[in-house]
Amino acid sequence: MPTQHPSVAQARTVKDHISGLIARSDEMEELPVAMRYVMDNYTLTGAERELVCATSTVDLGTCAGEWFVPPQVKPGHHIVYVHGGGWFAGSVDTHRHLIDLLARTTGRAVFAPNYRLAPEHPFPAGLDDARRAYFHACAHGPAGPMEVASVALMGDSAGGNLSAALVIDLVSRNARLPDALALLSGVVDFRPPDRMPPGSDDPTCEPTTQTKIAELYLQGVTTVDDPLVSPAAAGTDILERFPPTIIQASSDEYLRDQDVAFAAALWRLGVTVHLSIWPHLPHAFHLFPQELPEAGRAVAEIAAFLEGVEAAPVDEFASVGAQND
Asked: Which of 283, 286, 294, 301 is catalytic?
C-alpha cells in the first residue's frame, strides 16, 4: 500500500482537533458562547508558538490596537491585520503567533485591532473599528505620527470579510485605498448556499449555521445582501477599484467556491488577483505554522505578493489621503 504523505496526516490531525472542539461546542446552548469556546481553543494543539516581534498597544477610542514590529523592519511599510473568529470571537491574542509570523516574514510592522465583537456590538461596530485601525496605520507607525509609504490590509475568515468590506467602505468615502489586500480563508459572501460545496470537509461551518450567525451579527441593521456584509454583492463600479489582491483558501473549505468566484469577478474587471487554493487543509490553516508546513509557505507567498505589488506602478487611487471618521 502507498504511504500517506506526511502533510496529509498532519492536516488530518489538525482537522480532528477542530472537529473535537466543534463537537463539544455543539452541547452549548448559546451560539456566541460556542463560537468563543472554539476560537479560544482553535490553535491549542500543544505546539509551541514562536513570538519574536516587539509589541506596543494603541488606544483607538472604541477599541485598542497592537503594533507588531519585527527585528528587521522596513520603515513606513505597514500591514493592518483583522483577526478572524466568526464576528463573535477571536482577538489579537488568539492570532498573536500568526501576526508575529506575518511581520517577520514580510519585514513590515503590523497593526492589529481588537475590534468590538457581536452580538454585544452588532454590525457595523467591528467594521468601524477596522476603519479606525486602518486610518491610524495610514498616518502613524509604532513610534508615532509619520509619513507612511504603503499599507496592506489583510485578515482571515471573518477578518477577511471585514477587510474586503473595508475596501468597499473606503471606496465609497473616496479615502486612501490599501496598496494590497490579502484574504486568508476570507468570507466574501454571507448569503448561504443551499448546500455544502461539493468536496468540502469543513466542520467549522454549514449553511444553517451561517444563517444563525447572520441574524446575531446583523440584528436587523441590514441584510446579507449588503456589500458591507457580502463583499461579493458589490457592484462592478466598486469591485473594479479593488487594490491588487491575493486570496488563499483550502480546497476543503466551506468558503472555497465563493473565494474562487470572487477572484474571477475581480479578474474580469482587470484587478490584479492571485488565487491560491491549497489542497486538503483546515479552515484558516495559516493559524497552524508549527503543525502545517503549508502555513509558512502561504505566508511567504503573501510576502512575495506584497513585494511584487511594490515593484509595480502605483495605482492612481493610492495617492488619495486618509480620512478620519
From this structure: 283
